[in-house]
Specification:
The protein has 85 residues and is mainly alpha-helical. The chain has helices at 5-12, 25-41, 53-59, 64-73; strands at 46-48, 79-81. Helix 2 runs parallel beside helix 4 (64-73).
Length: 85
């Protein structure tokens, strides 16, 4: 996230999920879900920069956080894509 999401968001003036705490993975995923749902409730435009392809090559799968975000944002009319390397 810090190598892709944060620089992209800061360069374009967008917000991003910042839990501020180090918690167990499942709690972090739930906080992320809640943050996404709040963005939707507030009708905040969201930009999907795509999965981290380096992670996919190294591990064989995409981030569980990315998959959660995709599921939460499915059908959201204010979601756009700007796929990044």
């Amino acid at each position: 996230m810090r190598h892709r999401v944060v620089p992209y968001a800061e360069e374009h003036g967008f917000g991003y999920f910042r839990p501020g705490l180090v918690l167990p993975r499942e709690q972090m995923l739930e906080l992320n879900r809640q943050w996404i749902r709040e963005q939707r409730r507030l009708r905040v435009p969201v930009v999907d920069i795509g999965p981290d392809l380096t992670r996919r090559i190294q591990t064989g799968h995409v981030s569980e956080f990315y998959e959660t975000e995709r599921a939460e944002l499915f059908g959201y009319e204010l979601l756009t894509e700007d796929l990044q390397p």
